[in-house]
């Protein structure tokens, strides 16, 4: 009997695109290749990988930006059943070394930007990706093989496709492995939600996709599946630079991007400086990774950028994407709904649990977000203790605090580790951050908990101002007091202090690193 998962393989996607839309382009640097050419290159590359001794189950690490070699290696590895690890190149070197050891990386493919990593692997098992390669094996040489038939390796949906690592903000990064079937289903769930429901970042055949999210972050949120699956032109930016991104959007007529909020800020700032805001008008953006501030939402609205919010993570893939409400009374209400509320993608179930009792709370009440989905990995690789903590039966404990709305929407308010517990009550820091971030001149803000002998913890706000702006504590408190007077926040949520800093640390995925910030501001990371 054949394996029922046999059709759900990653390389089936590029094979189908080569037949269905062989002339559609992939763009990288000054190169343009069609899906038909890309498929032939992948077949040749897969055969070359086998000639190197890479086999089904071999883990290969790839250290590079969003490039054509990165794209091709994903498909070539999938074709022979090798397991790909897109190295999180934003991690510190010691953590990158740790992840490669845990993943049991046997071969490393690297561009010149990451040549230092090649010392972590035997030089006989490294491949240089850059054109000026001086390694024993060079990527372009592997492509010189002109094999035209796919290798005869049986790969099914139940075989492992990739290994990924969390960003490591609460300790060393944790590893999860995804099978072909799980990753394909997770990626297609994004395409279905964006294609079949009323959401501003709609994604359809004919869109030109340029992912700003790097491949090391959940394989660029599945964009390497979406583009060939939908037969869409796929633009690869390499390393994210806002000026370059803006140029590519204009020259390649990009209609759809994926980004974290910090990237959107940088992109809009670059457009302002270059007098090219018109380039962004009509763009569609899938935004996630951290909360979208109301100021950014309004700025995108002013520029006619249709945005949708995505919620998910390395250890759960996609969970939910915002769907536009049927009715809203004002544009501000609409923007707040879209930036704060997401709806489960098909086949995702969500519960809100009271951590103290372990029981479900009533709709509208705050608790920990639990979920289950067909693509959950159900374990942290080689970490039984963390697995027991997070995967409970068929459910995954996200570690996020949230609330379910009456329309089925999910609002994630905070990380449990970041939520402030003052006098036995929770203060969701994201709400305070959203209010403060909307003040003109605020570049970034993080609300963190400071130990209090009387209350347990009390909030303080850490603020980075935009260049050229001057604000005082009094001006910040004036805005917060207006929110208190209007009844939108309780008075006891008011931060005990406001601290201005020159820089706010970010994680490898562009989120604010509150653990590191606490060390800098409070002298500890707890």
Automatic annotation (TrEMBL):
Residue intervals of the AMP-dependent synthetase/ligase domain: 17-381
**PROSITE patterns on file:** AMP_BINDING
Instruction: Give the protein name, as stated in the record.
Output: AMP-dependent synthetase
Q: Which domain of life is it from?
A: Archaea
One GO molecular function term?
ligase activity, forming carbon-sulfur bonds
Give residue ranges for domain AMP-binding enzyme C-terminal.
432-511
